[in-house]
Amino acid sequence: MRAWRTWRTWTTRATRSMLLVALVAGVALGPAPASGGRGGRITTGFERRGGLSWTTPAEERDLLRELIAAAPGPDRAGWAPARVTVTRVGGSARGRDVELITVSGARTVPEPIRVLFVCGQHGDEPAGREACLKLVRDLADDRSAAGRRLLERVTVLVLPAPNPDGLAAGTRGTAEGVDLNRDHLAVASPEARALRRVLRETRPHIVHDLHEFDAPTDAPAAPTLYLWPRNLNVDPELRGLAQELARDRIGSALRAAGWASDVYGVDATGRRLGGDGDERLLRNAAALDSAVAVLVEVDANPTSALERGDAALLHRRRVGAHLVAARATLRMAAERGEAVTSAIRAARARSARGPERVYLDGADNLPGTWAAPLEPPCAYRLTPAQFATARAALTEHGIRVSPDLTVRTAQPQGVKATLLLDPRARFAITDGAPEPCGEEGA
Ligand SMILES: [Zn+2]
């Protein structure tokens, strides 16, 4: 696929330049630290401390450097190791790097399925990142035939810390107070732009978004929750695959591992807590880019007296649950890759000429305020000032704008154009003037 090849070239160059910068700064190269012990397994800081505290950013750098360095070539049995690369894909508001880790096989099928793990949009939910670092290490370390076969078919993309300032400060939002998981439509924050760049350049087939939650004390939820994209504009076939992944694969794997697991967003009494069709959420926004997208939430609070008295045990359960879910996603990618890629191809073909109707709100379990979907106008006309406001978001989403500042809805990203520009849309960033068909371009 063309976009992918472009990305690979860019990755290689960007990786080199990143390592060069690191070399100049004197932080990343030189002898690999012996964090795993001489000849021992490469470990995370979290593992070395038995789960008492999270892997620090410096330990993460060392871990990745070791994994990259630990791949000298095929061994005597002809086993070729996984390739690990690290690419800077953007920067945070405070100037911290947003990095993408790629794990791929030494040999791959012509079009491996790409799975993106987004490991901590909210900085105060650290278990997702920890699970992702373990996952990367496990994949890079796996010398089994099954592990090799998996990486021949699946390319694993990992954003360990998409909100690095929030992670450093232990806050949900970014340093500018932005909730990153409400910024995937307007794409106003540098962190959301970095994530969008990854989506645009890698075009992942599956997006797996890792979170942690505080169960409400009056209505305890299952300790693990999952959800698919509920936005009504999402292609039904892709929603179906996301449901299969979330419910049948992830939910089942979590239950098999001993954790109760349920649908996110509705508590035991049927009260709605969140997880709706909001198009600003990554789960919905990525699905509108024709990805199979899922959310996984793990309870951050103690679920037993034992966990209450043992922080390391609590941390290990949170990380362990995320790992089980992530592995379930990789299994589905390996086993159902063809179904996923052909569904995505079909969805892209269906959306190529733009939407016939656009739902301005609602969800697959909730009727919206708008009883019927909107039949979108042919175009939205923008004033120069409105264009200045909307320009960055339109560009980030790949929405084409005519020289006379009209945005036609008959284009692949026509749903997002409508949600961004229609005065009736709940999260529109500017109020474009709807132009009926036959008048635009006059
Ligand atoms: Zn979260």
UniProtKB/TrEMBL annotation:
GO cellular component, one term: extracellular space
Keyword Hydrolase: yes
Superkingdom assignment: Bacteria
InterPro entries in the cross-refs: Peptidase_M14
UniProt record, GO biological process: proteolysis
Ranges for domain Peptidase M14: 53-295
Cofactor(s) required, per the database record: Zn(2+)
Keyword Protease appears in the UniProt entry: yes
MF-aspect GO terms: metallocarboxypeptidase activity; zinc ion binding
UniProt keyword terms in alphabetical order: Hydrolase, Metalloprotease, Protease, Zinc
Family label: Belongs to the peptidase M14 family.
Entry protein name: Peptidase M14 domain-containing protein
